[in-house]
Amino acid sequence: METGKYQSVLEKFRKYVMPTYAPKLLIEKGRGAWVWDSEERRYLDFAVGISVSNLGHCHPAVTAAIRKQAEKLVHVSNLYMTENQPLLAEKLINHCFDGVVFFANSGAESNEGMIKFARKWGSDKGRFEIISMEDSFHGRTLATLSATGRSKYRKGFAPDMPGFKQVPFNDVEALKAAIDDKTAAVLLEPVQGEGGIVPSCPEYLKEVRKICDEKGILLLFDEVQCGMGRTGKFFAFQSYGVEPDAVSMAKALGNGFPIGAFIVKRKWADTLAVGTHASTFGGTPLACAAASAVIDVIDSEKLLDNCVRMGEYLMAELGKLAEKYAFIVKVRGRGLMLGVVFDRPAGEFLPLLQENGMLALTAGENVLRLMPPLNITREEADTALRIMDRTFSEFSEKNK
Ligand SMILES: Cc1ncc(COP(=O)(O)O)c(C=O)c1O
To answer: Which residue numbers in the chain have pLDDT < 50?
Structure first.
């Protein structure tokens, strides 16, 4: 009986799984923009694993690619070549800038590698420090945590790794003042995700590039969340006309199959030479088959166009909700990386939305984060808008 199943999974979860998460919903299957729980209730998924299943759940082309590759070869060491890895690297380069790719398994591991790249680059110049941004998020390993500006994530894990400092985001003068002869690189998310869906100001990003060039230091972009088409370009930086020296990605790269990567410009291709960095599971034939299929789908289904179109539509319609409900301060974002800013903690709305059949996320304290699949239809967007309208209206009634 389904409720019995929920209870027994919950009991096992509480007894045997380390309580770093506190999930309440038991999800059993997903298809496109929808997931179903253990009681066969369906939810419109505007979280997609925090921008992971950007093609929707169980996209048939990705499932087929995984199935086909799993029957042929799942893993061999990177001491050997497999066909899929350079094929995927070429596809990524064709969507980025000319350079070389290192494959990893997660966002944190990709950023960790990118930080190591910057330190290696700076090692003969006495430069090792990474300047990142307040309110940024770069992962949970010790180095990426030290780069992370959201200090609540660092609490209890002192001391921070040496060689990191943060400055306010979108503040040119603060950045200039922080750079010294120890600085190796500036690291930032072109659109901050966890920090509250905060896009870089276009002039700021251009200025940061100029400063890095003048000072002879590297510019690193973390596109783990905002990359892979989420903002309407393959990489968010492409809409700013500013190229970094290296960029990291993960999350949506495998549409749910774990894979991460970072790309460095060709002029820095030899910085991490043989033996300097490695990962047992980085770029397995299976992971690369999945990611390769993801890129093909983004191209063949013209998902970037849909992302821009639906992003503009949702932004406009959410703007109308902001006029209707006084507790909505504003709506911001790029493409389908949208934030609804409230005058109160956004977490209050998540259970209510879930009750009405929609999954979403928070970002920062007061921001409701909406990240539907890039192939969301107009009908699904309208369903989400109706659910949000109903939820906000019920909330108003209760809080009169
Ligand atoms: C911008 C950014 N960087 C890095 C990470 C860490 O990725 P992972 O959880 O795959 O290690 C995240 C995860 O939310 C992220 O949003």
So the answer is: 1
* Residues 179, 327 within the same domain: no
Mutate to test the pocket of ligand 1, among 53, 112, 137 (most ligand atoms within 8 A of CB): 137
pLDDT, position 219: 99
Cα dist from 207 to 177, 226, 240, 241, whole Å:
14, 20, 11, 12
Q: What is the pLDDT of residue 1?
A: 44
> What does the pLDDT look like over 267-283, one tens digit per residue?
999 999 999 999 999 99
Task: Please tell me the predicted confidence (pLDDT) of residue 67.
Answer: 98
- CATH number, position 51: 3.90.1150.10
The CA distance from 313 to 112, in Å, is 37
Full residue range of the structural domain in which residue 83 is found = 60-300
Domain count, the chain: 2
Structure tokens belonging to residue 345: 């903690």
Same domain assignment for residues 97 and 183: yes
Q: Are 5 and 40 in contact (CB under 8 A)?
A: no
pLDDT value at residue 91 = 98
Instruction: Tell me which of 251, 255, 361 to substitute to probe ligand 1's pocket, judged by most ligand atoms within 8 Å of the beta carbon.
Output: 251
Judge if 159 and 220 occupy the same domain.
yes
260, 276, 300: which is the final residue of a domain?
A: 300
Q: Which member of 222, 234, 245, 257 is catalytic?
A: 222
